[in-house]
Amino acid sequence: MQPDSLTFIFLNAFIINNFVLAMFLGLCPFLGVSGKIKTAWNMGLAVVFVMLVSSTCAYGINYLLVRFNLEFLRLICYIAVIASAVQLVEMVIKKFSPALFRTLGIFLPLITTNCAILGLALFQTNRDYNFAQCLAFSLGAGFGFTLALVLMAGLREKLELAEVPDVSTGAALSLMLAGLLSLAFMGFAGLGG
Amino acid sequence: MIKDPRAPEPLGWKTFSQGIWKENPVFVMLLGLCPVLAVTNTAMNALAMGLATTFVLVCSGVLVSLLRKVIPKQVRIASYIIIIATFVTITDYAIQAISLDLYKALGAFVQLIVVNCIILGRAEAYASKNTVVNALVNALGMGVGFTFALLCLGVVREVLGSGTLFEVTLFGPSFQPWAVFVLPPGGFFVLAMWLFLFSYVRKRRARIQELKKEVSHAA
Amino acid sequence: MTEELNPSAPTLPKSRNLIITLAGIAMISGLLVVLTFQLTLPRITQNRQDALERAVFTVLPFAETRTNYLLTEAGLEELPDADFAKANVFAGYDQTGTLTGLAMEASARGYQDVVKILYGYAPDTECVVGITVLESRETPGLGDKVDSDPDFLDNFACLDAKLTPDGSTVINAIETVKHGKKTNEWQIDAISGATITSTAVGNALSESTQTMLPLLAKHRNSLKTHKESELSSKE
Fold first, then answer.
1. ipTM passes above 0.90
2. CA distance linking residue B15 with residue B135, whole number of Å
3. C124 burial level (CB within 10 Å; 0-12, 13-18, 19+)
4. Nearest Cβ partner of C109 from A8, A72, A73?
5. pTM for this one?
6. Which of C29, C33, C166, C199 could form a disulfide with C176 if both were Cys (CB 3.0 to 4.6 A apart)?
7. B46, B40 in Cβ contact below 8 A?
8. Residue C162 burial (CB < 10 Å; 0-12/13-18/19+)?
9. 3-state secondary structure of C183
10. What residues pair up with C66 in beta bridges, in sequence order?
11. Which chains touch B (3 or more CB pairs under 8 A)?
């Protein structure tokens, strides 16, 4: 498979270099919102959506910045524009589809300053992806995030009922689980190679 | 924090030490985990990342504190983010100028300092309400605490994963590096182990206190 | 602080004030960033150049100086040192100013992510004479050995990449074979336990040689085979 083919970029972001489990991006929501499968699923969808929006924005901004030789303002522009774009989209959804807003709405502001979103924008710039590649990358990353979140939520729902030693409750246990998941995901490395 | 937030805290040892142990951003508050796990595969990277974050913490803390009377409430978050992004960009270029290898090792994670919740959290919760000196000392404390946590992970991962410490080989040639520790899962495992350890220590201390109390009651 | 007293109906400060503050902060930060950028730019360019230089001289051990070239369908164009980032072929010259080899970049998909290498090519013997890894996220202790394993690097003493007499294609495409199965001059003996990364190196070389070498042969005339050594040109 060619390194810059769309399928490869998607697969790479989806499972091989999963954003959460291999790149450690977006850990806060990963540990925070992975209590229930349903919430995790909704959160995941919201992330996919925000990633698409921000990836598009970042592509546009970068195009402009490179054009005017202003690359050093990249970070500031990315964060400002992505945050406002998400806010804007949130308002639009609220207005036109209250049902969708109820599912995704509460997560949107949480996600905006998530490192996975900014990370996505920075990585796609570093790797010089074109527009189609950016879209594939953001979809892969978003679904990869969703997958990790839902898997984790499933595991944690089971763990609720398990008896664990006193010291190992809470965050440490979640991290241990995440480590095991990450180990499992390493099995995908070499896929398509 | 139930105290009146507008009463400026007196400057003291607590202002500094708070971030190191009692409110350690990583081990206690579990904030900013992305860089903690992503760049701690060697002790050197961990140290560099810690210093970079400290620099941004201190600078943005000071500036936010200086401007705390100028910035209107409604646009404060936006202003903080701009200030933080500025210092992160500065750090980014500084690291590129100091060492390209280091920059390559840290990758995009230098720029991701901008979304590290510790920094915005400190700006909002502390620097915007306290004097410049206090903000400086507090940010320094938090930075040291963060660097300490990163080093804790970096040292363990480098020693186990590559058998070296700050690139100095520690063991003989017969040492088989435990490669999983420099790989992503190792990051999760080592952090989990540290958390186990701290939780154990805390529980033990609480129990000792309890027992002491009981003993003194009995006496 | 009226808004603190009555949080349900905050008295909004004039939006002009908000905009002025934000604009002021943005101005200050813009100024700071531009200042740092200007101050660090020379150092950063220098660092990049040094890193590239190190890589070029690793794959072309006999070279003392280098020249940057941009090789495209249209031709081979010499670039000044300032534009080294755009170049895709680096020619190395030894002390006497004779061309010792060319260094080119190649990349292919490895185990974890894309592996990017720089390889040296000797035009007189038509071999690949050395590689160095520019970028990789391969498994430490296994895949990252491609940069250090002496047996593996021995493959690149003179790895055959001969062109057909008319210079249109490479006769035998470079390929990676399992450890210990190397029989031909154009084959790479993989590191056992790191076959995928070794294959990636092979694929990268094979692809790059097949596109770049015929192009190079086509525009051979614009490549300087002899460079005035810097000393003599100064005198």
1. no
2. 9
3. exposed
4. A8
5. 0.82
6. C199
7. yes
8. middle
9. coil
10. C92
11. A, C
Provide φ and ψ at B56, rounded to 5°: -65, -40
> Domain containing B39: what range?
14-166+180-207
pLDDT band at A157 (very low <50, low <70, confident <90, very high): confident
Domain that holds residue C123: 42-229
Positive or negative CA dihedral for B29, B146, B131, B110? Answer: negative
Domain assignment of residue C141, yes or no = yes
In a domain, C138, yes or no: yes
Mean pLDDT of chain A: 83
CA distance C191 to chain B (A): 17
In chain A, the N- to C-terminal Cα span, in Å, equals 7
| Distance, CA of C146 to CA of C152 (rounded, Å) | 7
Nearest to A193 among C37, C111, C139 (CB): C111
Q: How many domains does chain B have?
A: 1
Cβ pair B71:C40 closer than 8 A: no
Enumerate the β-bridge partners of residue C70.
C77
Q: What's the rounded Cα separation, in Å, for the pair C92 and C56?
A: 8
Q: Check residue C107 and give left, alpha or beta (phi > 0: left; psi -120 to 50: alpha).
A: beta
- Domain boundaries of chain A, sorted by first residue: 6-187
With tokens 């840290």, the residue in question is B106
CB within 8 A of C16, min separation 6: which ones? none
Indicate the number of domains in chain C.
1
DSSP classification of residue C226? B
Predicted confidence (pLDDT) at residue B2 exceeds the cutoff of 70: no
Contacts of A16 in chain C (CB under 8 A): 112-113
Is the distance from CB of C146 to CB of C191 less than 8 angstroms?
Answer: yes
Residue C230 pLDDT greater than 70, yes or no: no
Residue B215 domain-assigned? Answer: no
CA separation for the pair B43, B175 (Å, rounded):
19
